[in-house]
Amino acid sequence: MGRWVVVCVFALLCGCSTSTGPYAPASLGAPTEDGLTIGHRLMAAHEYELALESYTRALGQFGMTTKVAAALGHANLSLGRLGQAEPQLRQATKGADATPEMWNNLGVLLLERGQYAEAAGVFRRAFALSNGQNATIQANLALALSKRDENRYDTANNEGAEPFP
What we know:
Elements: H1 2-15, H2 35-44, H3 48-62, H4 66-78, H5 82-94, H6 100-112, H7 116-129, H8 135-158
């Protein structure tokens, strides 16, 4: 009799399984989060490589939307991959729903590349889109303008100058 009960309980428990593969389900009934949300959390934790992987998954989920392009560009910028980040950030800022933060990230990239005049223009646009309410963008704009003016000054004063022997 005891064996019969054990066999029945085992058969009942096996019938309750909802798994269709060799892996257990993540969590039944809980909504799964998309790659963008997970990537944003990883960026906040300074896990840029993992965030880039998550954003790449989001690319598969949503396609190359403005938000996905901006996220990929931001992750690549944070990793110092300026060559990969630039086309992604430029694509993100072409979208009608481009945010001041997207423009700011493009400006930071341009500053890193030494393109001060273009960076200043990009920061101006970001500052205007934020209605002048973003102190980070304002500081970046001031930095770009000072670098641009410093570069102009150095170029003007060094024309025709002889180097020291």
